Amino acid sequence: MFRFFSHVKPQGGRTLMVEGAHTAPMQFVKSLTPKERNLKLRPFRKCFEPSKPSLAELSGHRPRPSGRTDYFMNEPTEVDGVPLRVTKMTGEPGDVILCHPFFWHMTSSNGLDYPGFMRTKDVKMKD
After folding, report:
1. Alpha-carbon dihedral sign for residues 28, 43, 51, 109
2. Which helix (H) or strand (E) holds 107?
3. Cα 107 to Cα 54: distance, rounded to the nearest angstrom
4. To 10 degrees, the CA torsion angle through 5, 9, 10, 14?
5. Contact yes or no for 112/9 (Cβ under 8 A)
6. Would you say residue 82 lies in a domain?
7. 82-87: which pairs have CB atoms within 8 A and are 24 or more residues apart?
8. In contact, 111 and 14? CB cutoff 8 Å
9. What pLDDT does 65 receive?
10. Backbone dihedral region of 126: left (phi > 0), alpha (psi from -120 to 50 degrees) or beta?
11. Would residue 113 count as lying in a domain?
12. DSSP β-bridge partners for residue 105
């Protein structure tokens, strides 16, 4: 969950997100053993990301291409038939974004003259 405490505008840094990335791992999950399916999220991502060239480039497991803004943000790429595109997370004070655990996101640099404030919080279901 992402909570916004100020205006977070495009070019304002904070967080980039990958639209559609929560569905991309589903085919990969089907190929795992029951033990591998019980991996925590971080070890799972370390297995999954390098196996997909565009995600490996985005996450730094492979060299990033030149012209990366166009490559990642303007032209969708496909991973296992799922179209993916990087976009900037924006919001207003009081906005909340709820996310799937497989939601791919990463920090970005702030290109504005003022900071944007947001906070993340993990929300888990009770057993």
Report:
1. positive
2. strand 105-110
3. 17
4. -20
5. yes
6. yes
7. 82/20, 82/21, 82/23, 82/24, 83/20, 84/18, 84/19, 84/20, 84/21, 84/24, 84/54, 84/55, 85/18, 85/19, 85/20, 86/16, 86/17, 86/18, 86/19, 86/58, 87/16, 87/17, 87/18, 87/19
8. no
9. 64
10. beta
11. yes
12. 17
3-state secondary structure of 82: strand
Nearest-angstrom CA–CA distance, 13 and 113: 11
The per-residue pLDDT for range 47-69, each reduced to its tens digit, is 776 667 777 777 666 676 676 66
Residue 59 CA to its chain's centroid (Å): 9
Q: Domain total for the chain?
A: 1
Domain of residue 100 covers 2-120
Residue 8 domain flag: yes
**pLDDT category, 20, cuts 50, 70, 90?**
confident
pLDDT at 92: 93
Is 125 contained in some domain? no
Confidence of residue 98 (pLDDT cuts 50, 70, 90): confident
- The model's pTM is 0.66
Is the pLDDT at 109 greater than 90, yes or no?
no
